[in-house]
Design a protein that fits this description.
The structure is a homodimer. Chain A folds into 3 domains: about 10-55, Orthogonal Bundle (434 Repressor (Amino-terminal Domain)); about 70-165 and about 300-310, Response regulator (Rossmann fold), CATH 3.40.50; about 165-295, Rossmann fold. In chain A, about 40% of the residues lie in helices and about 15% in strands. Chain A has helices at about 10-15, 20-30, 40-50, 55-65, 80-95, 115-120, 135-140, 165-180, 195-210, 225-235, 250-265, 280-285, 295-310, and strands at about 70-75, 100-105, 125-130, 145-150, 160, 185-190, 215-220, 245-250, 275, 290-295, 325. In chain A, the strands form 3 sheets. A 5-stranded parallel sheet of chain A has the order 2-1-3-4-5, covered by helices on one side. In chain A, strands 7-6-8-9 form a 4-stranded parallel sheet, sandwiched between helices. In chain A, helix 5 crosses helix 13, helix 8 (about 165-180) runs parallel beside helix 9 and helix 10 packs across helix 11 (about 250-265). Chains A and B meet through helix 4, helix 5, strand 2, helix 6 and helix 11 of A and helix 4, helix 5, strand 2, helix 6 and helix 11 of B. Chain A binds a DNA duplex (30 and 30 nucleotides) through helix 2 and helix 4. Chains A, B: Keywords: DNA-binding, Transcription, Transcription regulation.
Chain lengths: ~350, ~350
DNA sequence: GAGTCGAGGTTATACGTATGACTTGGAGGC
DNA sequence: GCCTCCAAGTCATACGTATAACCTCGACTC
């Protein structure tokens, strides 16, 4: 270990200030009113500053029995979306004196691993986004307070859930495209077994089938630009009348679809309309800018953290899904040929 | 607190297995060879499993004097790049029994805050990417083993550094564009006071000025699509001969530049060539696909973590910058008008 | 049959902190 | 002049773990 000497402890500070260790703890813990005089308190604070004292968190956590640390589990870090979720959660956490530890799922981190092995820091609770069932049971087995993000509220886990109102987003997309006159749809679905994607498929089917004369085909693709490119190209090359509107499960898929459409010599939105879901930076980087559903990732993170705090304090988390909003841009227009 | 009862401790396990607490610690810590019989060891393991025992990390950390936890500080989480860095670092860390805690800089997390307040988990060391000087002094004051990513090796901090060979990437970009015949350049520079961007500016100037008859203008923009759009539009509207090649400090800036070029009615690469730096997913999402410098973010993270482990063990970290590679795609071509 | 030795444990302790219980030295009341 | 009481501290302890030091008992040596 390269640590020059050993870290100063509260006892070192006490000695330097000529008081007991208890007094140091009292002063630094801001519990000294009526127990320590203002002058000694100042002397302690000065000694602590001089020595560069920082309390040993392990010891404090042990003594207190909690860590004020929380684990945020996300499916992958490679999207802006979860970065936003983290930001929101960390903001709320900081306001309450909590820290947030991030645990991206093990994709590419070798064999499936125990989230808790990675987060060596002891935890007070967990916020988990759609994740593998085995990891979930590990968490449940640990009896840790848990909040699930974007998960089936009727799931048997009995954990609190915080969800985006994805179904409403899909309703807005469907209404927008139907209003424009579209009747032949292609649903580019994420090839990921997660509740949030099931909702998209279910709600889209429900909305479109409610209107007579509509047809919906579905193509599945992994969430990557190349995957979406391949899947879309194949789907559009299928014989029969070409869809006039392409509903994508998220923006990244839409970006891949753009490339497929271009490759086939078609134009957006003249020949085919495209919609996404997320409203990442990517949505306005591509040409034309993407009509998509804006998800407020930071608010999502904030609500998740607030829910966890509620659970920790024995309160009931705030109910209600988080509203989402359709953002109409240049990738949607009325179909050219009826 | 919603925790049903209190967590089982090693003493509970000991009682259940009919042995002493020490024996439990020995068995579970895998240090029992020749000290505990195989049958008792199995009995202990079974009791631990039945009770759902998990060691209290705070107590262990306190006892051991280290946490096997590391803090990764990144400027912001909103880019794929640092997600890759994290992934690489976490992989190496996991191989060595370490965990990684992420600390995105405080942008939007309220007033500038102490990284350590957020990372309530006690830390063994820090990997820090280009960051504010005040945060750095806080770290140094703490005497924590430190590895800096993408920072001036001659900096006075005396910390180990791990750098990408950005200068070589710029050399490759310059050589590529000069080979194509370009002589009038616009450098779209990130408006961020960081060593890694200084290197780009310095090296680009050095390379281009070495060739007679070249001219270089510089425009500054914040790293965002809109910022780049505005700055590029203004720069290209300037009177005088138009640049034929646009060198951007990163891919996001290039994506913004694309929009500016389109808005001015110009085509890429026919009227103007554009290069980026990073090779994010964005680079192939835009049309035409971007010629850019590929940075291996995961390798960067791995090397960073390896360096920190070396420091922790008193070894000298591996020297040498991480190689980068120019990826030529459709956004560069010879200039149309000489 | 006394001595040795190792297998298979146990006991005791320290890590650094927070806090409830105790102490002390005066100031003030009557 | 004795009692009370409060301000300003101090003392002692517990949190759960890992490990060094100690103990015990049976097998084996000579």
């Amino acid at each position: 270990m390269a640590r020059s000497s050993t870290r100063p402890t509260s006892r070192d500070v006490a000695q330097a200030a000529g008081v007991s260790q208890a007094a140091v703890s009292l002063v630094l813990g801001d519990k000294w009113r009526g127990r320590v005089s203002e002058t000694t308190a100042e002397r302690v604070r000065e000694a602590a500053r001089d020595l560069g004292y920082r309390p040993n968190l392990a010891a404090r956590n042990l003594r207190l029995g909690h860590t004020r640390t929380v684990l945020l589990v996300v499916p992958a870090l490679t999207t802006e979306f979860f970065a936003g979720v983290y930001t929101g959660a960390a903001r709320v956490a900081a306001d309450h004196g909590f820290g947030v530890v991030l645990y991206p799922s093990p994709e590419g981190i070798g064999p499936a691993r125990d989230p808790f092995a990675s987060a060596q820091a002891a935890l007070d609770g967990v916020i988990a986004s759609s994740m593998a069932a085995d990891a979930l049971t590990a968490i449940r087995g640990d009896q840790l307070p848990l909040v699930m993000l974007d998960s089936d509220p009727s799931g048997s886990l009995g954990a609190a859930t915080v969800n985006l109102d994805i179904a409403d987003g899909i309703r807005q997309v469907a209404a927008h495209l139907l209003d424009l006159g579209h009747r032949r749809f292609l649903h580019l679905a994420a090839d990921v077994p997660s509740w949030t994607f099931e909702v998209r498929a279910r709600e889209l089917a429900a909305q479109l089938h409610a209107v007579p004369g509509t047809s919906v085909r579905t193509a599945h693709a992994p969430i990557s630009i190349d995957g979406a490119l391949t899947a879309t190209e194949a789907a559009l090359a299928t014989p029969g009348p070409r869809p006039t509107a392409l509903v994508c499960d998220d923006d990244k898929l839409a970006a891949g679809a753009y490339k497929a459409v271009r490759r086939l010599g078609l134009r957006i939105p003249d020949d085919i309309s495209v919609t996404g879901l997320d409203d990442l930076g990517l949505a306005t980087a591509i040409d034309p800018e993407l009509t998509t559903v804006r998800l407020d990732a930071e608010l999502f993170g904030e609500r998740g953290m607030e829910a966890l705090l509620a659970v920790l304090e024995g309160r009931t988390p705030q109910a209600g899904d988080i509203p989402v909003e359709l953002v109409v841009r240049g990738s949607t227009a009325p179909p050219s040929t009826p």
